[in-house]
């Protein structure tokens, strides 16, 4: 199965696949609005603003699996992130990014780009996956890696056809 075939739900519950992002560089992030890393929303938004028209898609997938740091759902979540962090990039419906109920997207991402020591499991909120224009997972970034540290990788991928 291609990354673009994976079904996802919008924050309003509509189901689609990721084919809308075919041909774009994607930065896929598991987010949580109450996490200590939530200030990274501003850096992710900056990447979205600076490179969105050049072919970058920043995509957030909220998860409540780490210390219950994402209590919000749907429009309330999107509104909170917009008001507090200026987020305008897509935030999808909450998903599981690890464990028995892991969403097929994260099953795909973690298999393609395991973490440190080859471990596949997501360890915390704001783990980031960089995907090239052909849907290949290029790199995984730890939650502590801020969006500005990823910018050079994004620039390089955007220059490739």
Write up what this structure looks like.
Keywords: Oxidoreductase, Peroxidase. Belongs to the glutathione peroxidase family. Pfam families: GSHPx. There is one protein chain. The chain has a four-stranded mixed β-sheet with strand order 4-3-5-6, with helices on both faces. The protein has about 160 residues and is of the alpha+beta class. The radius of gyration is 14 Å and the shape is globular. It has four helices and six strands; from the N terminus they run βββαβααββα. The mean pLDDT is about 90. It has one domain: 3-Layer(aba) Sandwich (Glutaredoxin), CATH 3.40.30.10.
Strand order of the largest sheet: 4-3-5-6
Number of helices: 4
- Gap between N and C termini, in Å? 22 Å
CATH architecture: 3-Layer(aba) Sandwich
Give me the CATH superfamily: Glutaredoxin
* N-to-C series of helices and strands: EEEHEHHEEH
DSSP strand count: 6
The biggest beta sheet reads: 4 strands, mixed
Calculate the mean pLDDT score and round it: 92
Keywords: Oxidoreductase, Peroxidase
GO biological process, one term: cellular response to oxidative stress
GO molecular function: peroxidase activity
Organism: Cohnella lupini
